[in-house]
Amino acid sequence: MSKNDKTTTPGVASKAGTTLRSPGASATAKSLAGSALAQAGTAKQTGAVMEDKAAKVLSSSKYSADTKSLAGSVLSQSNKTR
């Protein structure tokens, strides 16, 4: 299994924190934000379920640019072999 050594950047981590504190953020956005924060400064990789959720967000027109940014970050930290 090839390890992905990417981590969440400080800018994305800040956006994730704002999303988690926002009462108007969707459950999907908060889920992606939590995943992004969990990977900040660690070697953790995105799991298959979250990877699938992030891919669906990126391919949909109903999500905001901020949510898509979180999805992109989460997806970029997925396992390289999947």
Distance between the termini: 9 Å
Radius of gyration: 12 Å
Overall pLDDT metric = 91
Order of helices and strands: HHHH
Question: Low-confidence stretches at least 5 residues in length (pLDDT < 50)?
Answer: none
Number of strands: 0
Q: Into which percentage range does the β-strand content fall?
A: under 5%
Summarize the biggest pleated sheet.
none
Q: What would you call the shape?
A: globular
The number of domains is 1
Helices and strands: which structural class? mainly alpha
Instruction: Figure out the total of helices.
Output: 4
Share of helix, binned: 55-70%
Describe this structure in words.
There is one protein chain. The chain is mainly α. The chain has one domain. The protein contains 4 helices and no strands. It has helices at residues 10-21, 27-38, 48-59, 65-76. Helix 2 crosses helix 3. The longest helix is centred in the first third of the chain and has 12 residues, at 10-21. The protein starts with 9 loop residues before the first helix and ends in a 6-residue tail after the last helix. The mean pLDDT is 91.
Which SSEs are present, and which pair or pack?
Layout: H1 10-21, H2 27-38, H3 48-59, H4 65-76
List keywords for this structure.
single chain, 82 residues, mainly alpha, 4 helices, 59% helix
In short:
The chain is an all-alpha fold and 82 residues long. Helix content is 59%, strand content 0%.
